[in-house]
Specification:
Layout: E1 4-6, E2 11-13, H1 15-26, H2 30-37, H3 41-48, H4 56-66, H5 70-95
Antiparallel strand pairs: 1-2
Helix pairs in contact: 1-3, 2-3, 4-5
Length: 96
């Protein structure tokens, strides 16, 4: 996966991009966030590197830990997926 996907009409960032920004802003490492979310450091690493998407457990934990809504994280996930699908579709059309 990629942390940023774009086309001429749209752009979306992988949810992991925002998690990394939060970690940087808070001076927090992945291990600390993993502990707070009751998950593994490996899973947080995969998330911030764009290798996995958010699941319901991560969404719930992030909303609680960061003081945001679960809707925010669902929307970021969905926007990224929709944009990625649109970009991949356009790339496929260009190849044909």
């Amino acid at each position: 996966m990629m942390l940023k996907i774009s086309s001429e009409q749209s752009i979306a960032f992988h949810p992991g991009y925002y998690i990394q920004q939060y970690l940087d802003d808070q001076g927090m490492n992945q291990r600390e966030l993993a502990d707070r979310l009751h998950t593994t450091e490996k899973k947080i690493g995969e998330l911030v590197n764009g290798n996995i998407l958010l699941d319901d457990k991560l969404i719930d934990g992030l909303a609680l830990e960061l003081g945001t809504s679960t809707t925010l994280w669902h929307n970021l996930n969905e926007k990224y997926l929709a944009t990625r699908q649109q970009v991949e579709w356009k790339r496929q059309l260009e190849r044909e």
